[in-house]
Amino acid sequence: MKVGNRWVQKITKRFPFGALVFVQTLWGATAPAELSYRVLEKQAQDPSLFVQGLTFSGGHLVLSTGGYGESKIQKIDPSSQQVVSEARLADQHFGEGIAELNGKLA
After folding, report:
1. Parallel/antiparallel/unpaired status of strands 104-105 and 60-65
2. Which residues contact 105 (CB under 8 A, 6 or more apart)?
3. Share of the chain above pLDDT 70, in %
4. What is the separation, in whole angstroms, between the first and last Cα of the chain?
5. Beta strand extents in 6-82 (DSSP E only)
6. Which of 38, 55, 78, 103 has the smallest CB count inside 10 Å?
7. Residues 6+ apart with CB under 8 A from 89
8. Model confidence over 37-75: pLDDT tens digits?
9. Which of 71, 74, 76, 73 has the alpha carbon at shortest distance from 94?
10. Separation of alpha carbons 45 and 42, rounded Å
11. How far apart are CA 54 and CA 39, in angstroms?
């Protein structure tokens, strides 16, 4: 399928991410590598938490939870499963995922 440059420019201005995916599809982007995994251990978790994100940073699990008035970020010791520190978000914020970038959590 041939697509003119003007059309691509127009679409990328309105929908940058969607257009990128579409353009990659048109020009045959390679599929991502297939990964596999193995469960090493299962750990219990508070079922009342609405988990939005989980990462491993500085030897700790970092968990972010969502819910207006309930959102928080917890740093958890993986061996004892104890919460080492916790920060609550203001009631008007709904926590989402968490990631580490350049040594900082976001």
Report:
1. unpaired
2. 55, 57, 62, 73, 98, 99
3. 71
4. 40
5. 51-57, 60-65, 72-76
6. 38
7. 71, 72, 73, 95
8. 898 888 777 888 888 888 888 899 899 998 899 999 999
9. 71
10. 10
11. 16
Q: Given the DSSP bridges, would you call strands 72-76 and 83-88 parallel, antiparallel or unpaired?
A: antiparallel
The predicted model scores a pTM of 0.60
Percent helix, strand and coil across the chain, each to the nearest 5: 20, 25, 55
- Side-chain half-sphere of 86: how many Cα atoms within 13 Å? 7
∠ Cα 88 94 102 (to 5°): 70
Alpha helices in the chain, H assignment, sequence order:
5-14, 16-26
- Owner of token pair 């940058």: 16
For residues 82 and 76, is the Cβ–Cβ distance under 8 A?
yes
Average pLDDT, the chain: 78
Residues 45/51, Cβ–Cβ less than 8 Å: yes
